[in-house]
């Protein structure tokens, strides 16, 4: 079936207003013309869309179904207009990214810089979120692309490997573990810790591994900023587990020591997550392909 977009737009307004006369005033279209278009839609579908009563109109089950898809179509057309007008004005696309701190602190700035040199007119909105919030944002359509740790559940999303990072133990210089080259996580659990946000992928991983060992994290402080975590550690408030490439920039300035975590799970994979690659815009596909080649 082919649907007339003007008729669908009028039907959406009728459904919202529940009244043909109010729709006529809003749309500046005669009531008779609106009624004719609704009748044509009903004939095309083969089922009544409206039930008329003393107060106006009510939607039939078929009308409710048409309203749902008509609104989706209207939103899609608006997005299409926005994207294509961007090409006409030279913007050439807009990408919304939600990512975990590890990705934003380590890899994304460099990868964005390389991409921006190739496609300088593409614009980005970037938000830092914990892994579970990234997944929700992508699934709900509030983000076009998410970057998460592989351990984060992402049912319903399509994922691709992005980068690899290593979790390492950070301790103050002079700490009992500072002279060690490698340490097992079971030993770390004997010490008080400075931990990340409760919903962060690192916290989820550490909690899971501690439970597997029959122990619990001795968390003295929880804080979301990597920089603040390092400052807390340097002041003797606990040890922390952080991405190695993040800790490298703080070791000298904060008088810290990085100790290798002798655990297979300390080697992590970060993933790109989106609703469906085949259904993505050409701009988003180009960016995802660029990131997939970055590692």
Automatic annotation (TrEMBL):
UniProt GO MF annotations: DNA binding; DNA-binding transcription factor activity
Ranges for domain HTH lysR-type: 1-60
Entry annotated with the keyword Transcription regulation: yes
Organism superkingdom: Bacteria
Annotated signal sequence range: none
Keywords (A to Z) from UniProt: DNA-binding, Transcription, Transcription regulation
InterPro entries registered for this protein in UniProt: HTH-type_LysR_regulators, LysR_HTH_N, LysR_subst-bd, WH-like_DNA-bd_sf, WH_DNA-bd_sf
CC per GO annotation: cytosol
The UniProt record lists the keyword DNA-binding: yes
Family the UniProt entry places it in: Belongs to the LysR transcriptional regulatory family.
Record-given protein name: Transcriptional regulator
Native source species: Pseudomonas putida
